[in-house]
Write a structure and sequence with these properties.
It is a single chain. It is built from 15 helices and nine strands. Helix 4 (74-89) runs parallel beside helix 6, helix 9 packs antiparallel against helix 10 and helix 13 (355-374) runs parallel beside helix 15. 54% of the residues lie in helices and 6% in strands. It has a three-stranded antiparallel beta sheet. The protein has 443 residues and is mainly alpha-helical. The structure holds 1-deoxynojirimycin (NOJ) (2 copies). One 1-deoxynojirimycin (NOJ) is lined by residues 211-213, 343. One 1-deoxynojirimycin binds at residues 60, 69, 73, 75-76, 210-212, 424.
C-alpha cells in the first residue's frame, strides 16, 4: 500500500516535470503532416548511400557514438528502400506521389547501388551467412557477438527488390533483371534468387527476432517469409522459372499452419514468439508491436480483422499507462516495442515509446479505414482515421522543432532519445502520411 502510494507520488512528479514544446500541440496537424513528409524524406535520403559509407549502404542512423548505429542493417535497409522505390516510382500501391524528375535519377542510382551492395553482402563471409543482421557501412563483415541470424532480413530484402524487378520488367529492362536481380539459376548469382533459395529452405529454423533479443520462432519473420515466397513465385513465373515458382508456392503454403500457432485464442490476439530457444525470457505479456509491423510490412491479414484490431488494442492499452508522457499533451498513445522492454538505446534503464512503432500503429488504422471505406462503411472509416491521427499527433508533439526524429521518445521528459534521425523512424512516418492520404480523399 505504502509502496503503491509512493510510486504514484513519483509518477505525479514525473508528469509535473514533463518538458514538452508548447507550440507543437497547437500547430495545425495537416500542415505539420505536409511539412514533416518533406523533412522526413530529406532526412531519410541523407542516410541512403551517404558520402561516408559505401555506395548502396543504408545507415540505420548517422549516430556513431551513443549508440553507434552507423551500420547497414539488412532489415532497416530493406524497409527504407521499399519507401525509396515508391519515391522513384512516384507511386505507392495506392496513390500517386509528386516527386521532382530531377530527384528520380538520383533515387534510381541509389536503388541500383543498393542492389550491388546487397549482393556484395551475400558474398561476404560472415558468422551467420545470408541471415547476417548487419554490416559495417563500408560493407565489411561485423564479426562481434550479436543476436544472429535474423532471417527476416533476406525476406524483406527480397520483397523490396521483387517490387523493383517487376517495375524494371514493366519498363523493358529484362537484361538488368535477369543478370542482377533474378537469374533463375541454382546456385544463383543474383540477389533475389539467393534470398528466395535461403528463405524457402530456412523459414522453419529458429532465429533472432526483429528486436535482436530472442532466439525462437517469430510471427514477424514467418509472415515476412511467406510474403517473400508468394511474391517470389509470381516473379519466377513471370521469368519462366517454373519449377522454382512451384517450390516457392508450396513453401509459402506450408508456413501457414505455423503462423496460426501464434494465435492466442483466449485473448483473440497474435503473439510474437513461440518455441523460444534463447535470449531474453521475461516477455510474459505476449504483447509486441512486431506483430503489427509484420502485417504492415508483409500483409496477409486485413487490419479490420478482429484479431489484428484486438492485438493493437491490447498493446495500446498496455503502453498507455506504462509511459508517463502518454498522459500529457495529446491523447494519442506513444507505442513501445513491448511492455517489458528496458532498452533505452544506451543503458537499459527502461523502455520508451518508439517513433517507428507509433507511426506504424497510425498506418495500421489508416489501412483499416481504407478497408472500411472499400466495404462502404464510411463512418467506421472516419473513426479509424481519427484513431490513426491520435498516434501521429503523439509523434508531432514530441518531434524536434527542426523535424528530426530519433529512435525513441523519452518516457519521462518527452524528448527525442537514442539514435538520432533513425532512418527507419523517418521511413515509417512517411509511410503513415501516405497511408492517410490514400483514405482521406475518399471520405
Ligand atoms: C541492441 C539491439 O539493437 C536492441 O534491439 C537490443 O534491445 C539490444 N541490443 C539488447 O540486446
Ligand atoms: C534496434 C532495433 O531493435 C532493431 O530492430 C533495428 O534493426 C536496430 N536497432 C537498428 O535500427
Amino acid at each position: 500500500m505504502v509502496q503503491k502510494a509512493m510510486l504514484s507520488c513519483i509518477w505525479t512528479i514525473f508528469i509535473f516535470l514533463l518538458t514538452i514544446p508548447a507550440d507543437a500541440a497547437t500547430g495545425d496537424f495537416e500542415a505539420w503532416l505536409q511539412a514533416q513528409e518533406k523533412i522526413s524524406t530529406e532526412r531519410m535520403l541523407r542516410n541512403v548511400s551517404p558520402p561516408d559509407a559505401a555506395p548502396g549502404a543504408v545507415v540505420a542512423s548517422p549516430e556513431k557514438l551513443y549508440p553507434n548505429y552507423f551500420f547497414h542493417w539488412t532489415r532497416d535497409a530493406a524497409l527504407t528502400m521499399n519507401t525509396v522505390v515508391s519515391l522513384w516510382q512516384s507511386a505507392t500501391p495506392q496513390i500517386k506521389l509528386n516527386v521532382p524528375p530531377t530527384l528520380r535519377q538520383s533515387l534510381f542510382d541509389r536503388i541500383t547501388a543498393y542492389v550491388s551492395f546487397s549482393r556484395q553482402n551475400q558474398l561476404t563471409p560472415t558468422r551467420s551467412g545470408i541471415g547476417e543482421p548487419k554490416f559495417y557501412a563500408n560493407g565489411t563483415a561485423f564479426n562481434e557477438d550479436w543476436c544472429r541470424p535474423q532471417n527476416d532480413g533476406p525476406a524483406l530484402r527480397a520483397v523490396t527488390l521483387i517490387r523493383f524487378a517487376n517495375l524494371m520488367l514493366d519498363r523493358g529492362e529484362d537484361l538488368y533483371v535477369k543478370t542482377q536481380l533474378y537469374d533463375g539459376r541454382t546456385p544463383s548469382q543474383s540477389v533475389i534468387k539467393t534470398d528466395l533459395e535461403f528463405v524457402s529452405n530456412h523459414w522453419r529454423d529458429h532465429n533472432c527476432d526483429i528486436w535482436e533479443e530472442v532466439d525462437g520462432e517469430h510471427f514477424y519473420n514467418k509472415i515476412a517469409s511467406r510474403r517473400a515466397l508468394q511474391d517470389g513465385a509470381a516473379l519466377a513465373t513471370r521469368l519462366g522459372d517454373v519449377g522454382a515458382a512451384a517450390w516457392y508456392t508450396a513453401q509459402a503454403q506450408q508456413i501457414e499452419p505455423s503462423i496460426q500457432q501464434h494465435f492466442d485464442a483466449a485473448r483473440n490476439i497474435f503473439i510474437p514468439t513461440i518455441n523460444r530457444v534463447a535470449g531474453i525470457w521475461y516477455k510474459h505479456s505476449g504483447l509486441d508491436s512486431q506483430v503489427i509491423l509484420g502485417v504492415l510490412h508483409a500483409g496477409g491479414f486485413q487490419f479490420i480483422d478482429p484479431r489484428i484490431l484486438q492485438t493493437m488494442k491490447l498493446q495500446t492499452e498496455s503502453f498507455r499507462n506504462l509511459y508517463p508522457i502518454n498522459k500529457v499533451g495529446v491523447s494519442g498513445v506513444g507505442i513501445g516495442r513491448y511492455p517489458e522492454d528496458v532498452y533505452d538505446g544506451d543503458k537499459f534503464q527502461g523502455g520508451n515509446p518508439w517513433v517507428l512503432n507509433t507511426a506504424a500503429f497510425a498506418t495500421a488504422y489508416y489501412h483499416a479505414a481504407k478497408e472500411s471505406l472499400d466495404n462502404g462503411q464510411r463512418d467506421q472509416a472516419k473513426r479509424f482515421v481519427a484513431m490513426g491521427d491520435e498516434f501521429m499527433k503523439r509523434v508531432q508533439y514530441h518531434a524536434n522543432p527542426d523535424g528530426s526524429l530519433s529512435e525513441q521518445i523519452d518516457r519521462n521528459t518527452g524528448h527525442m532519445t537514442s539514435a538520432r534521425d533513425l532512418t527507419w523512424s523517418h521511413s515509417e512516418v512517411i509511410v503513415a502520411i501516405w497511408g492517410r492520404r490514400a483514405v482521406v480523399g475518399g471520405l
